[in-house]
Every structure is written in structure tokens, then in C-alpha cells.
Design brief:
By secondary structure, this protein is α/β, with parallel strands linked by helices. Helix content is 29%, strand content 23%. The strands form 2 sheets. It has a 7-stranded mixed sheet with strand order 6-5-4-3-2-1-14. A 7-stranded mixed sheet has the order 7-8-9-10-11-12-13, covered by helices on one side. The structure holds zinc ion (2 copies).
């Protein structure tokens, strides 16, 4: 499978500001030497070697992750604002232009996880089928509710595509496009589910956003360690710094330090920091990642866990 990140921001879509762009240009000019600017190749090489926070951005769209299965089928986790560019990309790849289908898994229905649905062009195209899965029995009602005319000009029944809804219990699993998908409830206001995708060759991807694991939760972490155990990739809610997480108890999110602890205990191979706070700029995101890597080195220097921070455009192949 290929995992692609289209929205990595939590809570609220966050556009980069003109001042932030100006700041990046200033930094680039400070770093460039005359030799870097001699030829198109030297410029390309210079740009490619700049940190992401200077040459680009982690991104401001909210939660949306694509799984492209080995059979080239599409599974989408959550419909934050990142779903809009994903829809355009699918169509540019010749998918979902009519008489095609894909699957959605919804973790929960907070705005930052559903707001892109009405801007997903394939949902308007007759012949397309959206197979929608969730552990919430009323997910259809919730999605309909954001499209009543007091909130949005087009209603759910006016969409051209076919939507099929499947509820499955946390204690069961479903088979979708060759993947076995299981779920686990996590602590979050209003409830939320983590989903685990296992492909036939045994490679496992766990998506666990909007989940509060605090110091108290670590005392009863056993069932979660079993659930995460041995995952090839674990995407984890790390909205707060450790200090913020101590102040924002019951806000429903975790810190990178706790995520690192849990990932190491669970023998996870790659931890992806996710659901970035809207107040964090790109330089702060670099720091969050560096601190998590430093924390891992201090706690267990020989542990093979890899840590990356999610950004729009990140692709991981399993
Ligand atoms: Zn969220
Ligand atoms: Zn949430």
C-alpha cells in the first residue's frame, strides 16, 4: 500500500500568511551562496537541500489520508479539507470520473474531519460509489446534518454519487479491497475510533488521531499496546507539546513525548506525528519533530523506531 497525506492539521484549516512567506524568502536569501545560484541545476540542488520549513510548508489542510492499495483501490481516512485536493488528484489519475468506487473510514465527525466532503468533486458525479465505513452507527445522520441548507447550499440527497453506509463494531473487523480493518475506541470528547489496516502480506498501518493519552492513561495502556503492537506505521495525534498536554487535560489530544513512549513500547517501526496544532508554524513543527527524536534518543538510544512529522505530500510505501 501507499499512504499519502493530504491534510495533517488539527482543529482548523490554517492558511500560511504573507508574513510567513516573506520570512521564508529572507531565510533562503541568507542561506544561498553565489555558487548555489550559478545554474538551474545548482539552484535545484540548493532548493532540494533546504529544510521543509524553509522551502515549503507542513501544510494547513485538516485531516485526510489516502491509502492506495496494492490492487490500486482507494481507501480514504476522514474528510477534512485535505479531501478537496485529493479528489482533484484522483480524477487527474483517471479515478472516480464515473462508474468507479472507493471506501471511506470516518474516525469521528468533528468539523476538521468532515468539512471537505462537500468539496470532493467525485461525490457529485453520477455512477461513482462511496462505500462509507465507521464504528459510529449514526455516521450517515452526522454527514447529512452538515449539509442541511442552513449550513450548506447543496443537500446530501442532491449529490450525484451513490453512498453505501456500513457500520461495524469495535470488536469485529471488515475486509475492504483486500485489507482487514479493525478498530479501537480512543479517549476524545464525543468519542473517536482508531483504525488498523492490515494487508495480506502482513504489513500494518494504524491511524490514531484525536486521541488523548495522558500520564494517567499510561497506567492502563496494556490493551492499546496489544492493538498497536508491531505496526509498520503508526500515525498518532501529537497536537500538543508535553507541557501543553499537562495543561489541556480532557481536550482530547496527546503529545509527541507520549506518542514516542507508546510507539517504543509497542515495537512500532515508524511513528508519524500528526494533527498539528493550528497555532504551530513550520519552524515550530521542525522543533516538535527534533524534540521527539531527541526524547527517543535520551530514553532508548538503541531503539530502532523512526519518527517523522506528517506534511502534505508525504508518501509512505509499505
Ligand atoms: Zn481533529
Ligand atoms: Zn476531534
Amino acid at each position: 500500500m501507499i499512504i499519502r497525506f493530504w491534510g495533517v492539521r488539527g482543529s482548523l484549516a490554517t492558511a500560511i500568511t504573507a508574513q510567513q512567506v516573506e520570512q521564508k524568502i529572507r531565510k533562503v536569501l541568507e542561506l544561498a551562496s553565489p555558487a548555489d545560484l550559478l545554474t538551474p541545476e545548482s539552484i535545484e540542488n540548493f532548493v532540494r537541500n533546504l529544510p521543509l520549513s524553509i522551502r515549503g510548508t507542513y501544510g494547513g489542510n485538516t485531516t485526510c489520508v489516502e491509502i492506495q492499495t496494492d490492487e490500486n483501490k482507494t481507501i480514504i481516512i476522514d474528510a477534512g479539507t485535505g479531501l478537496r485536493p485529493l479528489g482533484n488528484s484522483l480524477m487527474a489519475r483517471g479515478k472516480m470520473t464515473g462508474m468507479d468506487e472507493l471506501a471511506f473510514f470516518f474516525t469521528h465527525s468533528h468539523w476538521d474531519h468532515i468539512q471537505g466532503l462537500m468539496f470532493f468533486v467525485p461525490i457529485f458525479i453520477p455512477g461513482n460509489t462511496l462505500n462509507i465505513f465507521s464504528c459510529f452507527e449514526d455516521i450517515e445522520t452526522r454527514l447529512r446534518y452538515q449539509m442541511v441548507q442552513t449550513h450548506f447550499p447543496i443537500t446530501f440527497d442532491e449529490l450525484g454519487s451513490t453512498r453505501n453506509f456500513t457500520h461495524f463494531a469495535e470488536t469485529s473487523s471488515v475486509s475492504v479491497y483486500g485489507m482487514t480493518v479493525s478498530a479501537k475506541s480512543v479517549r476524545h470528547p464525543g468519542g473517536c475510533y482508531s483504525y488498523k489496516f492490515k494487508q495480506p502480506n502482513g504489513k500494518t498501518f494504524v491511524f490514531c488521531s484525536d486521541a488523548e493519552f495522558n500520564l494517567e492513561a499510561l497506567a492502563n495502556i496494556g490493551p492499546y499496546i496489544d492493538y498497536f503492537f508491531g505496526a509498520d506505521v503508526l500515525v498518532f495525534d501529537t497536537q500538543y507539546t508535553f507541557e501543553e498536554s499537562l495543561q489541556k487535560i480532557d481536550w482530547g489530544h496527546s503529545s509527541a513525548a507520549i506518542a514516542t513512549d507508546i510507539a517504543m513500547k509497542s515495537q512500532v517501526k515508524k511513528l508519524v506525528l500528526y494533527h498539528h496544532d493550528p497555532s504551530y508554524d513550520d519552524a515550530k513543527m521542525d522543533k516538535v519533530l527534533m524534540q521527539a527524536i531527541k526524547y527517543k534518543s535520551m530514553m532508548e538510544p538503541d531503539h530502532p523506531l523512526q519518527i517523522v512529522a506528517a506534511y502534505e505530500g508525504l508518501e509512505i510505501e509499505l
